[in-house]
Write a structure and sequence with these properties.
Elements (H helix, E strand, L loop, with lengths): L3 H5 L20 E8 L3 E9 L2 E7 L10 E11 L7 E3 L7 E13 L14 H10 L1 E8 L3 E8 L11 E6 L24 H5 L20 H12 L1 H7 L47 E2 L10 E4 L6 E8 L4 E8 L2 E5 L24 E9 L9 H8 L17 E10 L2 E2 L5 H11 L6 E3 L3 E3 L1 H10 L4 E6 L8 E9 L3 E10 L11 E6 L5 E7 L5 H13 L1 E2 L14 E13 L2 E3 L2 E2 L2 E2 L5 E3 L2 E5 L10 H4 L1
Parallel strand pairs: 11-21, 16-18
Antiparallel strand pairs: 1-2, 1-6, 2-3, 3-4, 4-9, 5-6, 6-7, 7-8, 8-9, 10-17, 12-19, 12-20, 13-14, 13-15, 15-16, 16-17, 20-21, 22-23, 22-26, 23-24, 25-26, 26-31, 27-30, 28-29
Helix pairs in contact: 4-8
């Protein structure tokens, strides 16, 4: 098997490197990776026959034909290794830091010259030359360009394994006499140095596209964020006044949902650390016993993204929120409504191994990633066995989950909840070594609009904005804001309508949300998003909850006969927008209505009483 040696050398439960999978489609890319392992060297890889043919080049490739670089052929690597950049943990094969030094495409050259020049060859030519030990090729990279040859050395030294080759630059317009590779020490993907990658907690995870079990983070997010980060300096300079006065920062956050010229009525005002009516912020954690119960801090919804010096921005993971208690080497995960999630995710029992602490409390999200590295709620339902219709089935262990930790609440005898968020996250990053199923959910400063556009382009659920000085409050707070891209809402199922035509069981689910007075307000019906199996499964649940009492307050507008059920089910729906129902800033009894809702699934991790009209609208 092409990647058997690659697989044999690695423990994939420990290393962030991609799994051994042969690509089904042919490719013509090449990559050079700077690898600071036992000693610094460069790994040169050509995409051939579904794998990356690989050579370790101690001194690195050269553009000077006078340099004949030793290249030791090593095991084939998977094509997904192409943009791997990060840290391979100690005690693993190849432990050290990896940087993507160059990328591009390549083409084989015909082994026979014409008029003193090499012409493009074929895949058959490439295979024959590789087998013969004289591979000629042309590179189209960011740093390496022109014609090269890899020539296998025939003379064997004592103890040689026959893997020695020479990498030689051919004479063409791209030669650079006296070429010094040391002058190029940054990644062509993220513009970082080895030292920056080695010191980045986020680089302890694979930045490439996940394959197979989908355990790892996609490169597009890291690369896009790196481009955003490069704009920080320009953004900071743009906040300075041009009249020579000192920069004034953090007085008022941008208006939420307003353009620059509109009123700032919706603005969020910064407050000092200690102000009457606001919680006190502590500069250091407080020594106290470990809490046994934590209710997660929740974010309020806003419609539009914004930038702000005093804000930290995070990706919103589309999974299940979970507080993780770590005590004496064991992990216990608890949902937002205090259900024990630990038995659902046996692979998360290893979380304590990656935290330098005996006792800790983390806040984070359990997520399942799709093939593009995006958190998928549908995959989460498959993983847990909670089908869209609500019926519990056998959990699908082939769908792996990750735990994205984004906050630290308690650590070895000290309560961190009143310490500012920015300091909590710094401490979290310092004690967490991402590995196994644990990831550090990083934040990005100031650039909320840019991060939102990245998330929107990649089809993510949305982003979060958190005040960098916010403390951890066990309630919903405007210190944390969520900005969703695809409009979603969790609604209470209070009834169903009779079916129409050939449809069985029911036509639509009647939905509601609770107002401030704890009254269930009707917000519409959802009749799309169901197949026959789903109709059958949900119907069995509805029959058990039937009641003659209308659970809604006020009028229920439905075109067909309605039947009532006890308000115990929570449905997640996607919708286009809210229409009508609210006038003069007051919530009318009939409520606003969902436009073009589509049923996504039932949520067993949400309490019906948490489905709030004011928060959703």
């Amino acid at each position: 098997m092409a990647l058997e040696e690659y697989k044999r050398k690695r423990r994939f439960e420990e290393t962030p490197e991609p799994p051994p999978e042969v690509a089904s489609q042919p490719g013509d890319r090449f990559v050079v990776q700077m690898h600071d392992a036992t000693r610094l060297h460069y790994d040169f890889r050509l995409e051939m026959k579904g794998v990356l043919k690989s050579w370790a080049v101690p001194k690195g490739p050269s553009l000077d034909p006078a340099d004949k670089r030793l290249a030791m052929q090593v095991e084939d690597h998977p094509v997904s290794y192409f943009d791997f950049e990060g840290n391979i943990p100690e005690n693993n094969y190849g432990a050290g830091t990896v940087l993507v030094w160059d990328v591009g495409t390549w083409e084989p050259l015909s082994p026979v010259q014409k008029d003193g020049k090499y012409l493009p060859g074929t895949e058959k030519d490439a295979a024959a030359m590789l087998a013969k030990g004289d591979l000629k090729f042309r590179l189209h990279g960011k740093r390496l360009r022109g014609d090269f040859a890899l020539v296998k050395m025939k003379g064997r030294r004592p103890g040689s394994k026959g893997t020695e080759w020479l990498m030689i630059k051919k004479h063409d317009q791209y030669i650079v006499e006296g070429y010094e590779i040391e002058g190029y020490d940054t990644s062509v993907l993220t513009n970082r140095t080895l030292e920056e990658i080695a010191g980045d907690a986020g680089s302890r995870e694979w930045k490439s596209r996940p394959t197979g079990r989908g355990k790892l983070k996609a490169a597009w997010l890291a690369d896009a964020i790196a481009r955003v980060e490069k704009k920080k300096k320009l953004t900071t300079e743009g906040t300075e006044e041009h009249n020579g006065n000192k920069t004034r920062k953090n007085k008022v956050a941008p208006a939420i949902g307003k353009s620059d010229g509109e009123s700032a009525k919706a603005s969020v005002i910064s407050v000092p650390s200690v102000v009457k009516g606001f919680p006190e912020v502590a500069s250091t954690p407080v020594r106290r016993p470990m809490p046994t119960t934590i209710h997660p801090m929740l974010a309020e919804s806003v419609d539009e993204p914004f930038d702000g010096e005093e804000w930290l921005f995070e990706i919103k993971w589309d999974g299940y929120r979970a507080i993780t208690f770590i005590e004496n080497g064991k992990a216990r995960l608890v949902s937002r409504n205090q259900n024990d999630l630990t038995p659902r995710y046996p692979e998360l029992k290893d979380l304590p191994q990656f935290i330098e602490a005996k006792n800790a409390i983390l806040d984070g999200e359990v997520a399942a990633l799709d093939e593009e590295g995006r958190a998928s709620f549908s995959l989460m339902q498959q993983r847990t066995g909670f089908r869209p219709g609500g019926r519990r089935a056998a959990a699908n262990a082939d769908v792996p989950v990750l735990y994205y930790a984004f906050d630290l609440l308690y650590l070895d005898g000290y309560d961190w909840r009143k310490v500012p968020l920015e300091d909590r996250k710094k401490k979290l990053a310092s004690v967490l070594a991402a590995g196994g199923a644990l990831r550090y959910s990083d934040h990005y400063e100031r650039q909320g609009k840019a991060l939102f556009e990245i998330a929107k382009k990649k089809g993510l659920e949305g982003i979060l904005a958190k005040k960098r000085h916010s403390i951890y409050e066990e309630r919903r707070s405007r210190e944390w804001l969520k900005i969703k891209i695809r409009h979603r809402v969790e609604c209470v199922v209070g009834g169903y309508t009779e079916p129409e035509g050939s449809r069985a069981h029911f036509g639509s689910l009647v939905l509601g949300l609770y107002d401030k007075e704890k009254r269930l307000i009707h917000v519409g019906q959802v009749g799309s998003g169901f197949d026959q199996n789903l109709l059958d499964e949900i119907w069995q649940m509805l029959k058990k909850l039937e009641t003659k009492k209308n659970p809604f307050f006020g009028e229920v507008e439905a075109l067909r006969k309605t039947f009532w059920v006890k308000p115990e089910l929570v449905a997640e729906v996607e919708y286009a927008e809210w229409t009508g129902g609210i006038t003069s800033g007051k919530l009318a009894g009939t409520g606003p209505k969902l436009r073009a809702p589509v049923f996504l699934g039932l949520r067993d991790d949400k309490n019906p009483t948490d489905c709030l009209l004011e928060e959703a609208v």
